[in-house]
Write a structure and sequence with these properties.
Distance between the termini of chain A: 42 Å
Order of helices and strands of chain B: HHHHEEHHHHHHHHHH
CATH superfamily of chain B: ABC transporter involved in vitamin B12 uptake, BtuC
Shape of chain B: globular
CATH class of one domain in chain A: Alpha Beta
Largest interface: A-B, 55 and 33 residues
Strand content of chain A: 25-35%
CATH architecture of chain B: Orthogonal Bundle
Number of strands of chain A: 12
Order of helices and strands of chain A: EEEHEEHEHHHEHEHEEHEE
Strand order of the largest sheet of chain A: 6-7-8-3-9-10
Largest sheet of chain A: 6 strands, mixed
Largest sheet of chain B: 2 strands, antiparallel
Strand content of chain B: under 5%
Radius of gyration of chain A: 19 Å
Number of helices of chain A: 8
CATH superfamily of one domain in chain A: P-loop containing nucleotide triphosphate hydrolases
Structural class of chain B: mainly alpha
Number of helices of chain B: 14
CATH topology of one domain in chain A: Rossmann fold
Distance between the termini of chain B: 30 Å
CATH topology of chain B: ABC transporter involved in vitamin B12 uptake, BtuC
Structural class of chain A: alpha/beta
CATH architecture of one domain in chain A: 3-Layer(aba) Sandwich
Helix content of chain A: 25-40%
Number of domains of chain B: 1
Oligomer: heterodimer
């Protein structure tokens, strides 16, 4: 088990945001956190690597309680990809090299450069190495952010809506890459997502949040239209297209 | 992602080499400027004689006196102050995540000017002498300096306390700085309104930044502080790069963003306070030098911090040299020249855009 969350609670300005959150994430597994806007998905994700401090409960990251870990040690175990990727006048290589920060002493080593070079090849971005990130497209920037998290050599990736600002092709491209890396290296990933169809296609388990609680936690087969309607307050239809489960929002079975 | 698969990319190493070459070029330029700066003035000294004198050869007694007592401390002060203001500016721009970040954004310089005004007007440390060569002097410069320093530090402590209460976010720091800046400017104007002509002249004289004011001992103190600050900022260059990539990214990379911000701001403010207290208000260098360097070698703090140090030294030394020559035998305030010389270059760099 890479991540074990027990009775997690979070308060923001004396307002309860998350209550009694408990789940586990295992090696090679992708978990999607789902739910409507403002329900606390991003807050939960940020608690997992102590960007935000949980007010209650325990989080065990690779066997250690995160409250007892140094921030750099947390960064060596968990790679975080924020929703919004900020740019500056940096080359893609330098922007990814920044991901070695938790491992760097005074200066970069040959090993750091080799790891960054390897990730550029793995993500098929060799031609972007010396491109400036402030001239890149949203899809390329997202890949840079993921590459930066991967060179941290993490046991788990925490991704905050990794496809929110991408076109269809880039969404598929990014999610396929994440799944490939997670399976290949036996690491894990936790992603907050809005697109239920993409979540159903790429994640192994699903956590639906409602009013700050876990409303449902289960696998692909256990997700039903009723659960989704309960969480989002909207009727949905589920069907199979090309062997893949799809959700049509706003359409009840009687209307179909 | 296997380490063995990766290689050290030659194209990237070549790219890094160019960055370092720019910095080395800046250091060579600074050295030549340093010799020229000592060489020119009311008494012109051949550059070769300057070099020989600096290497301890006794070329000419008159040259010895001019170089060791006047021009060398002045040139070194210009370099040290330029480095200090510029490195404080580059750190603040990163800490505040604001391109307008500089020692002045936080009102520290205005606090120093207010401190000088309090000293001159309330404690009566300013007076005018009726000689042409030295028409205005500060009666007790140490009290004025100490007063300026105290008010610089008061401004710093207020910003730090508010940051502690409300969180060390860039917005809180900048807004507090703007408020303090206005407050101290208003305070200075209030004091000036009730000041006599001689006191008013002394305050205005003090606020004109001047690198010739510093003695060897003051230069030594400034040098030690600026060197320590540069080492601190260089040590934190990866943290500043991470903060530039966004707060959340930085925290995800294990950077204690609030602590890096508070420490960086405290050290920047200390450097500014000491420089303002000894030399008066020298604007523009801290704001513009980092931007000039950004446009030449990019935003990576690994090159930006040393590059800004070199550029700060070059700009202030060049400005001080021209200030002594442009309307000789009169000497213009160096702060006027930093803007006169830096602004056109800066505008050119903005128009040209980033170097590829």
């Amino acid at each position: 088990m890479i991540l074990n969350v027990q009775e997690l609670g979070f308060l923001y300005r004396n307002h309860d945001v998350l209550h009694d959150i408990a789940f586990e994430v295992n090696h090679g597994e992708i978990v999607a956190i789902l739910g409507p806007n403002g329900v606390g998905k991003t807050t939960l994700l940020k608690c997992l690597n102590r960007i935000l401090k949980a007010k209650k409960g325990h989080i065990y990251l690779d066997g250690s309680e995160i409250q007892t870990l140094e921030t750099l040690e947390i960064a060596r175990r968990a790679g975080y990809v924020p929703q919004r990727v900020e740019t500056g006048r940096l080359t893609a290589f330098d922007a990814v090299l920044l991901g070695r920060r938790p491992h760097i002493g005074w200066d970069v080593s040959d090993r750091d450069l080799r790891i960054v070079d390897a990730i550029f090849s793995r993500l098929s971005m060799d031609n972007l190495r010396l491109s400036y990130i402030d001239e890149m497209s949203g899809g390329e920037l997202q890949k840079i952010a993921i590459a930066r998290a991967l060179v941290q050599e993490p046991r788990i990736l925490l991704l905050d809506e990794p496809t929110s600002s991408l076109d269809l092709k880039n969404q598929v491209d990014i999610l396929t890459t994440i799944v490939g890396i997670v399976r290949e290296h036996g690491i894990a990933a936790v992603m907050t997502m809005h697109d239920l169809n993409q979540a159903l296609r790429y994640a192994d388990r699903f956590i639906f949040l409602k009013d700050g609680y876990i409303h449902f936690h289960g696998s692909y087969d256990a997700v039903t239209p009723e659960i989704i309607e309960d969480v989002y307050g909207l009727p949905v239809m589920m069907g199979m297209v090309g062997g893949v489960r799809c959700i049509v929002p706003g359409l009840s079975p009687s209307e179909a | 992602m296997h380490v063995a698969d990766g290689k050290i990319p030659a194209d990237y190493l070549g790219y890094v080499r160019i960055k370092y070459l720019w910095i080395v070029f800046g250091i060579i330029l600074l050295f030549f400027l340093f010799i020229i700066s000592i060489s020119v003035g009311a008494v012109s000294i051949p550059p070769y004689d300057v070099l020989m004198t600096l290497f301890g050869q006794n070329v000419n007694h008159k040259y010895d006196a001019i170089i060791w007592n006047i021009r060398l401390p002045q040139a070194l002060t210009a370099i040290v102050a330029g480095i200090g203001l510029s490195v404080a500016g580059v750190a603040m721009q990163s800490i505040l995540r604001n391109p307008l970040g500089s020692p002045f954004t936080l009102g520290i310089s205005n606090a120093g000017a207010f401190g000088a005004a309090v000293s001159v007007i309330i404690f009566g440390t300013g007076k005018i002498q009726s000689t042409i060569a030295d028409p205005i002097t500060i009666n007790n410069p140490y009290i004025t300096t100490i007063s300026a320093f105290i008010f610089c530090m008061i401004a710093t402590v207020v910003i730090l306390m508010i940051s502690r209460i409300r969180g060390a976010s860039p917005e809180i720091m900048v807004l507090t700085g703007v408020a303090l800046s206005s407050l101290f400017t208003a305070g200075t104007m209030f004091l000036q309104y009730f000041a006599s002509d001689t006191q008013l002249a002394a305050v205005v004289f003090w606020t004109f930044g001047d690198v010739s004011r510093a003695s060897w001992s003051e230069l030594a103190l400034m040098s030690v502080l600026v060197t320590l600050a540069c080492i601190y900022f260089l040590f934190n260059r990866w943290n500043y790069n991470a903060i530039d990539a966004g707060n959340e990214t930085a925290k995800g990379l294990g950077v204690n963003v609030e602590r890096v911000r508070l420490f960086g701001m405290t050290i920047s403010a200390m450097v500014t306070a000491v420089l303002v207290a000894f030399l008066g208000v020298i604007g523009f260098v801290g704001l513009v030098c980092p931007h000039m360097v950004r446009r030449i070698i990019g935003d990576d703090q690994r090159y930006l911090i040393p590059g800004s140090c070199v550029m700060g030294g070059v700009l202030l030394l060049a400005s001080d040299t021209v200030a002594r020559l442009i309307v000789a035998p009169y000497v213009l305030p160096v702060a006027v020249l930093t803007a006169f010389m830096g602004a056109p270059v800066f505008i050119y760099l903005i128009i040209r855009g980033y170097k590829r």
